[in-house]
Design brief:
The chain is mostly helical. The protein contains 8 helices and 2 strands, in the order βααααααααβ. The chain has helices at about 20-45, 55-85, 90-95, 100-110, 125-150, 155-165, 185-225, 230-235; strands at about 10-15, 240. It has a two-stranded antiparallel sheet. Helix 1 packs antiparallel against helix 2, helix 2 packs across helix 5 and helix 5 (about 125-150) packs antiparallel against helix 7. The longest helix has about 40 residues, at about 185-225. It is elongated and about 90 Å long. The two termini are about 35 Å apart. Bound molecules: protoporphyrin IX containing FE (HEM). Protoporphyrin IX containing FE binds near residues 42, 43 and 140.
Length: about 250
């Protein structure tokens, strides 16, 4: 007698996130939190009783040191986006010419009550990851620029000192937040660019924090309702998938 019971789909384990991708992710989480904390203290320093110039410069220097770790981690990841495994590569992670139709197909399947499984990011996730990466790069570039203009730190610090130093003044002798030896005209010439970089940096951070909240919500929702195991995969590197993944 034959049974009409459906045969359960096989569950298979796939190695998805390679070690460098996982390391980048968790180091980035820690450093973004630390930078947000120190950046927040910088914003509310007066309210927190930090009124001395040395305190202001000290906070900025600490922020910049943590920022170097953040920038280095991000630069390694940007290289890994070209040489890492299939799922770490930008060609797989970021939206491309097929993304519109993939997104449509994904929405149609969800509307039909199905739960499509992905090894990499799902079509919506690809847009979110692209936006987050882009913001990280913008925040890094504007932060490094302000590290140069504000406290004369690398990579641009010495170039900015050379530009700002008055005739017959040793550029290396210029001190942060000290007008001595600074050419006033040149200082006011870079002021608007410095201001713009600062604005882009801070609004980039606000937008990043908003996207991080959405990312957390989306990951938890997907984990609970659609594809269990996506959170543990960022620790173990492996995803357990029942049936055929969409992007093998
Ligand atoms: C996701 C990473 C980052 C976050 C969340 C972050 C956060 C912040 C915040 C909240 C401020 C505002 C402080 C204020 O207005 O007083 C700030 C300013 C600043 N950040 Fe970052 N930052 C990040 C990355 C970096 C990096 C990579 C660098 C450079 C290595 C950097 C250098 C600076 C500098 C120099 C300022 C002072 C700008 C100013 O006074 O307007 N930041 N950052």
């Amino acid at each position: 007698m034959s049974s009409n019971k459906p045969i359960p789909l096989e569950i298979k384990s796939y190695t998805v996130w390679d070690r460098p991708t996982r390391l980048f992710h968790w180091i980035n989480v820690i450093l973004v939190l630390a930078l947000t904390l120190v950046g927040g203290i910088m914003m509310y320093k007066t309210e927190l009783g930090i009124t001395e110039l040395s305190g202001k410069i000290g906070l900025k220097t600490l922020h910049v040191y943590i920022g170097y770790g953040f920038a280095l981690n991000l630069l390694v990841r940007l290289v890994w986006g070209f040489i890492g495994n299939k799922y770490a590569r930008f060609s797989h992670m970021f939206p491309n010419t097929n993304s519109k139709s993939e997104l449509q197909a994904y929405k149609t399947e969800l509307a039909a009550g199905k739960t499509p499984q992905y090894l990499g990011h799902n079509p919506k996730g690809k847009f979110a990851v692209f936006a987050i990466m882009l913001l990280l790069v913008i925040i890094m570039l504007t932060g490094l620029f302000r590290a140069g203009t504000d406290i004369y730190y690398p990579p641009l610090g010495s170039t900015i000192q050379s530009y700002l130093a008055d005739t017959n003044v040793d550029p290396a002798g210029l001190k942060p937040y000290d007008d001595a030896g600074v050419n006033a005209e040149k200082a006011s010439a870079i002021k608007p660019i410095k201001g713009l970089a600062g604005e882009i940096h801070i609004y980039g951070v606000y937008l990043l924090l908003l996207l991080i909240l959405l990312h957390l919500f989306a990951v938890i929702y997907t984990e609970v309702k659609r594809q269990p195991g996506i959170i543990s995969a960022m620790f173990s590197g492996n995803k357990l998938i029942q049936g055929q993944p969409k992007d093998e």
